[in-house]
Amino acid sequence: MAIKHPTQTTERLEQREQQMRQAEELLGSLPQTTGIAKGLFHGRFIHDWVFPYPTLSRQQSIDTKAAVADLNQFCDQHLDPTAIDRNADIPRHVIDGLADLGLLGMTAPASFGGRGFSQKQYCRLLEVIGARCSSTSIFVNAHHSIGMRGLLLFGTEAQKQKWLPDLVSGKKLAAFALTEPDAGSDASNVQTTATPTGDGATFVLNGQKRYITNGAIADVLTVMARTPVDGTDDTAITAFLVTPDMPGFRVTEPRMEKLGIRGTATAKLAFDQLHVPRENILGPYGKGLKVALTVLDFGRTTFGACCTGAAKTCLRLAIDHARTRRQFGRSLAEFELVQQKLARMAAWIYAMEATTNVTAGLIDRGLEDYMLETAMLKVWSTERLWTIVNDAFQIYGGAAYFTDQPLERMLRDHRINQIGEGANEVLMSFIALTGMRGPGMQMKEVNEAMKHPLRGFGSFAHFAIGAMRLRMQTPDVPLDSEELKPMGRRLGKQVKRLGTTVQSTLVRHREEVLERQLVLERIAWIAMELFATACTLSRLDSELVNGDRSNQPAAQFFIADSRRHVDHCFAALRDNDDDRLLATAQSL
């Protein structure tokens, strides 16, 4: 085993301190409301964030059904995903047609030409697009969910009046420019600078952006740049509204060649002494990171919807092929190993749809802090979709490998999902660290209290009562269906176990937990599965109460299978080969 040099140890400690400061900067900028996801890490079940299962009003249902019918009809007639992939372009008549349907501004208020759809309604429409063409769904998502979302949420009235009507109508397109050569999932590492002129009326942008969807075809871009903090040597990220007609705006590569989602216009951009007026600052000065993270929340819910649509297409294709393809005198659908894949697809799709609807419902209810839930949805649904695509491919066999079948394109298109809008490995660490922050802060207060017993007695007593309650009480999962209550009790026990596990993990690793990514991954998976199970139980409970048992087999299989995965992750926190794994990696 190599011996660490003292200089290496010092550098490692400095890096750890920097990581802690960056994590604190990021997490400290977020609201601290305890919702369903954060509650799980405390061993609590905040049931009113999940129950009752969110539904649309009667008028919303009518409007959504009509919009879905119109969109399906348009797609049948005009959307050719094979041609889009082959030509590496979404035709302008398709974009204009989607705009005419209102899809490019569906959630915007009617005062700006939008239809005022809720996030849940909008997710249903993105599911339709996601089921057909990943390039088109990502184009729409880049324009509506992240491109113009910052303007909707943070724009001044003057900014909205200037740009929203044309963006909502589709006359102009939007893009979101965050990613750089050194800033991808590490959003806080943006290097593009925005330096104010002497009179402060203008900011001069210099830097590069890459992998920007719609970057070369957008008329308005939300650009993240680093600005000085008055009176200090520090800088902070600020969001700017930039248009391509500003001198100094350059498209260095309009359409980067890609493996999949070839129809999207993914660009490289450069800003050379680009002057942006102060009135184009979007949101509070120096709070661009909050703008970016809030915008990405909306994109991640539609990610869940698009994944649901694609997964349903995979299941349909797999079932059709398994029933008609015969081997050894039987259809493929009669073999248990094929049935295993089909059943798992159906179970995950049911849970994916439930989790997307619950998460979108949090936004529609006006709740403030749903960042953890959207991150969980993004990671969980994209990981499950990748396995679904792979399983459908396997069922098809050699036929799937040829370009006359859609699965070849889908395999290429959906690999990006685990990378885009935050790489899943980074988001899993984010999920675990954000979730454990609350319990960690409590334990930090207790440690401080122990240094000053008289002054800190209240903090210590409060923590002790909470710890005792966590170990003595099992969270209640409110279910109306009697037959589901045993599943609810099992979920409550697992939530309780996560709470105690978080405490023991923090005690064991302390500040080094930032670097224990194998541990963080397991804790993140536990939390994601518990969240997905809660959403699935909520949906199934609602259906059973209303006499609908059509989805019961898939839902109950998911709940049971998810519970086994959670148990496996708990066991792996203590019984694992992490040391051997790391030793092998370090020997390479």
UniProtKB/TrEMBL annotation:
Cofactors named for this entry: FAD
Gene Ontology terms describing biological process: fatty acid metabolic process
Domain Acyl-CoA dehydrogenase/oxidase C-terminal: residue ranges: 286-432
Annotated InterPro entries: ACAD9/ACADV-like_C, Acyl-CoA_Oxase/DH_mid-dom, Acyl-CoA_Oxase/DH_mid-dom_sf, AcylCo_DH-like_C, AcylCo_DH/oxidase_C, AcylCoA_DH/ox_N, AcylCoA_DH/ox_N_sf, AcylCoA_DH/oxidase_NM_dom_sf
Ranges in coiled-coil conformation: none
Acyl-CoA oxidase/dehydrogenase middle domain boundaries: 175-273
Domain ACAD9/ACADV-like C-terminal: 483-576
UniProt superkingdom: Bacteria
GO molecular function: acyl-CoA dehydrogenase activity; flavin adenine dinucleotide binding
Pfam families per record: ACAD9-ACADV_C (PF21343), Acyl-CoA_dh_1 (PF00441), Acyl-CoA_dh_M (PF02770), Acyl-CoA_dh_N (PF02771)
Keywords, ordered alphabetically: FAD, Flavoprotein, Oxidoreductase, Transit peptide
Recorded family membership: Belongs to the acyl-CoA dehydrogenase family.
Official protein name in the record: Acyl-CoA dehydrogenase
